[in-house]
Design a protein that fits this description.
Helix content is 30%, strand content 18%. It is α/β, with parallel strands linked by helices. The protein folds into two domains: 206 residues, DHBP synthase, CATH 3.90.870.10; 75 residues, Rossmann fold (3-Layer(aba) Sandwich), CATH 3.40.50.11030. The longest helix has 17 residues. The radius of gyration is 19 Å and the shape is globular. Bound molecules: threonylcarbamoyladenylate and magnesium ion.
Length: 310
């Protein structure tokens, strides 16, 4: 791919106007959401979507999430049943992605859903994402703004480190507060396709138990080795072996700590930033045990992928 001159844009009037102009011409804009930074393109523009796959070096069978400003815009693209409407009413805008049947005349480029009859949709809560969506008035297809298989970005600096020269612009909206990708649900019976920034418990309180993924519907992005730092990762470590850098949780001696007080929300927000910093130390990484409840389930999912053989 050609070497682009990547602009960093402030989240002000000029920045939004420039970003919307780039998107309208089929360019790529990385932008903040409350979960992680997204690598955005006009979801109706085939070439723009293809550029996303090229910029990430992502396997092309892996479909993208489409971001829209509100439920009304989402209903132009997909068919909502009662369950989907209840979920949207309760959790949008926010870190929940719904996989739903595409609606006839949806206008979305086929590459977005990699040929599936379904589409993954999300209404982000971050004010910068919201204002970008309203300024460009387009559905934005956006995977996380990192080269495929690497750690997801939670600051504009992370995006710049991975994608400078591969995107037209990076809209800087500071650090993402949730720090983990959205939770993905879909199918009938409703299944958990990816644990993420909205806890399964909160979804189940509203709609009852979720089915496991795998029967009928799966998220193709759930490859075993993913979110991978360059260093090796050893899980459930109570102490570092010689030479290892230790990522702690709770009060313990460590090189970096996800949350000294053992707070899982704080740990989720710190996860990718800390992995980036540990990766820069160029030592094998050991990670303390994380309780497998609430956001801890999503953190452990990401850590298992980071540690998977590759
Ligand atoms: O928080 C997030 O979700 C971030 C921000 C930028 O919104 N986006 C994100 O996108 O994590 P990405 O592309 O890294 O992950 C998309 C996931 C993949 O696991 C993919 O397989 C799944 O969504 N997916 C997309 N469309 C799908 C579909 N039609 N059916 C099943 N899974 C789908
Ligand atoms: Mg990703």
């Amino acid at each position: 791919m050609t070497n682009l001159q990547t602009m960093t844009l402030a989240a002000d009037g000029d920045g939004f106007a420039t970003a919307a102009g780039v998107l309208a011409k089929g360019g790529l804009v990385a932008f903040p959401t409350e979960t992680v930074y997204g690598l955005g393109a006009d979801a109706t523009h085939d070439t723009a979507v293809a550029r996303v796959f090229a910029a990430k070096g992502r396997p092309s069978f892996n479909p993208l999430i489409v971001h829209v400003a509100d439920l009304a815009a989402a209903r132009n693209i997909a068919v909502f049943d009662d369950m989907a409407l209840r979920l949207a009413a309760a959790f949008w805008p926010g870190p929940l992605t719904l996989v739903l049947p595409l609606r006839p005349g949806h206008g979305i480029a086929p590459l977005v859903s990699a040929g599936l009859e379904t589409i993954a949709l999300r209404v982000p809560a971050h004010p910068v994402a919201q204002r970008l969506l309203r300024t460009c008035d387009l559905p934005i297809a956006a995977p996380s703004a990192n080269p495929s298989g690497q750690i997801s970005p939670t600051t504009a600096a992370h995006v710049a480190a991975g994608l400078t020269g591969k995107v037209d612009a990076i809209l800087d909206g500071g650090r993402c507060d949730v720090g983990l990708e959205s939770t993905i649900v879909g199918g009938s019976p409703l299944a958990l396709l990816r644990p993420g920034g909205l806890s399964v418990e909160r979804i189940e309180t509203l709609v009852g138990p979720l089915a496991p993924a795998g029967e009928g519907i799966t998220a193709p992005g759930q490859l075993a080795s993913h979110y991978a730092p360059k260093a090796t990762v050893r899980l459930n470590a109570n102490a570092a072996h010689p030479g290892e850098a230790l990522l702690g949780f709770g009060p313990m001696p460590s090189d970096l700590n996800l949350s000294i007080t053992g707070d899982l929300t704080e740990a989720a927000a710190n996860l990718f930033g800390h992995l980036h910093k540990l990766d820069a130390m160029k030592r094998p990484i050991a990670v303390a045990p994380i309780p497998d409840v609430g956001l801890g389930r999503a953190i452990n999912d990401r850590l298992r992928r980071a540690a998977a053989p590759r």
